[in-house]
Amino acid sequence: MSRSKVIIFISGNGSNLQNIINNIDNDFLKMDITAVVSNNPNAKGLVRAEEAGIETMIIDTSNKYIDGLLTLINTYNIDLILLSGFMKILPKDFTDKFYGKIMNLHPSLLPKFKGLDTHKKVLASKEEYHGASVHFVTSKLDDGPVIIQGKTKILKSDSENTLRDRVHRIEHNIFPLAIKWFIEKHIKQVKDKCFFDNEELECPIEHLAD
Ligand code: GAR
């Protein structure tokens, strides 16, 4: 089987990008990252990509940028687009065109706490649990079918930083799993639902803590 070709969108630190690179290096993910795309020229994730010998591309989201992306995706026949800490909203034309091929990582137990500042919002709420989700992307923000989630109990002593650290650890477990299921063709998105081995998922797969 030929190796899947993936592009990864980032905006910042890129710890999840690094974790994906590590999972390719240790052969858990049999795929290649064709390019890392960032809207932020100062993203640390770009340095991580360059150190791993991966092409990088900066996009200016205040300007026309979709044409360049389409050229990249079509030229290399990209199988999967990963939003890995990408803090911009992609236009509907783009999400429609690559329907079923875009996955996003989000730091909350979707459908709770869509959008920004999820750790802050969850601390201000009466929730018992927080966590992270991987979902297929639709044109609505943080709204596509959720593939997998991992959760953590919120402690009285928690701050945004402690929650962010625990959620990152969850993300580093669940994102590679969802990616592996996609490239091995176990999961697919059909009519805004997620199917696993051709069975519709009634609810997200729950990743149990290590
Ligand atoms: C991750 O927690 C990811 O879930 C979040 O950004 C962080 C990126 O961390 N994404 C979003 O909030 C998207 N709405 P990283 O740069 O260290 O991978």
How does this structure look, described?
With 210 residues, the protein is an alpha/beta fold. The chain has one domain: 3-Layer(aba) Sandwich (Rossmann fold), CATH 3.40.50.170. Helix content is 31%, strand content 27%. It is built from 6 helices and 11 strands. The strands form 2 sheets. Strands 3-2-1-4-5-6-7-11 form an 8-stranded mixed β-sheet, covered by helices on one side. The chain has a 3-stranded antiparallel β-sheet with strand order 8-9-10. Helix 1 packs parallel to helix 6. The radius of gyration is 16 Å and the shape is globular. It starts with a strand and ends with a strand. 35% of the residues are buried. The mean pLDDT is 96. The structure holds glycinamide ribonucleotide. Glycinamide ribonucleotide binds next to helix 1, strand 5 and helix 6. The site of glycinamide ribonucleotide has 16 residues, from helix 1, strand 5 and helix 6.
Strand proportion = 25-35%
Cα-to-Cα separation, first versus last residue:
31 Å
* Continuous helix count: 6
Number of domains: 1
C-alpha-based Rg, rounded = 16 Å
Bin the helical content. Answer: 25-40%
Task: Summarize the SSE layout with pairings.
Elements (H helix, E strand, L loop, with lengths): L3 E7 L4 H11 L5 E8 L5 H8 L3 E4 L7 H10 L4 E4 L8 H6 L4 E5 L11 H6 L5 E8 L9 E8 L6 H24 L3 E4 L2 E4 L2 E2 L4 E3 L3
Parallel strand pairs: 1-2, 1-4, 2-3, 4-5, 7-11
Antiparallel strand pairs: 5-6, 6-7, 8-9, 9-10
Helix pairs in contact: 1-6
The structure holds glycinamide ribonucleotide.
The site of glycinamide ribonucleotide (GAR) has 16 residues, from helix 1, strand 5 and helix 6.
